[in-house]
Design brief:
The longest helix is centred in the last third of the chain and has 7 residues. Strands 1, 2, 3, 6, 7, 8, 9, 10, 11, 12 and 13 form an eleven-stranded antiparallel beta sheet that branches. Strands 4-5 form a two-stranded antiparallel ribbon. It has one domain. Strand 7 and strand 8 form a beta hairpin. 4% of the residues lie in helices and 54% in strands. The chain has 177 residues and is mainly beta.
């Protein structure tokens, strides 16, 4: 990754991998919030309650795609329960601290899982519908400036961040084979 200060997201495209179609008209993609499950713990020797994160166990991940109106290729996302793979590609503007020039950096996310919610929005004269689609994320992969930053797969026990395998010990302790 190049040195600099990330200032903004620039142009982006969202693709449906299964059909190879660009989902043009997409306004925003709300990426999943990666959060470890935790349990409340209180007992002798602890002066109160604490939340103890469970290493390797994530809360459910979702991604939300917003569009002004569900039309064209995005109509396939009305098929609740169907599994889709999204390929989000965008360009970030990073400011070089020495030269003060803008550096254009590629950013890419792959998100895969079933569609669990489609909100076609509202019908209003001369206005957008403000539609949204929610996907349960079972697999996520992120590259930034060509470098592998994050990969997570709930079924295969994969969670790597910056090439560091955060589930290596868990797989050794629990998985057979």
């Amino acid at each position: 990754m190049r040195d600099g200060i990330a200032a903004q997201n620039n142009i982006f495209k969202l693709y449906d991998v299964e059909t190879g179609t660009a989902l043009d008209g997409t306004v925003t993609v709300e990426l999943p919030n990666f959060e470890l499950m935790s349990n409340t713990f209180k007992g002798a020797g602890v002066g109160g309650e604490i939340n103890v994160p469970a290493p390797g166990v994530m809360n459910a991940l979702t991604a939300t795609v917003s569009a002004p109106i569900i039309y064209g290729a995005i109509c396939r996302y009305l098929e609740l329960g169907s599994t889709r793979t999204l390929d989000l590609r965008n360009e970030m503007v990073v400011i070089d601290k020495d030269s003060h020039s803008n550096i254009r950096v590629p950013n890419r996310w792959i998100l895969k899982g079933p569609i669990s919610n489609t909100n076609p929005g509202k019908i209003e004269q001369g206005a957008t519908s403000d539609a949204s689609i929610v996907i349960q994320v079972y697999y996520a992969h992120h590259w930034l400036d060509g470098e592998d930053v994050l990969e997570w797969d709930v079924f295969k026990g994969i969670y790597t961040v910056n090439k560091y395998d955060l589930l290596e010990i868990l797989r050794r302790n629990v998985f057979v084979g």
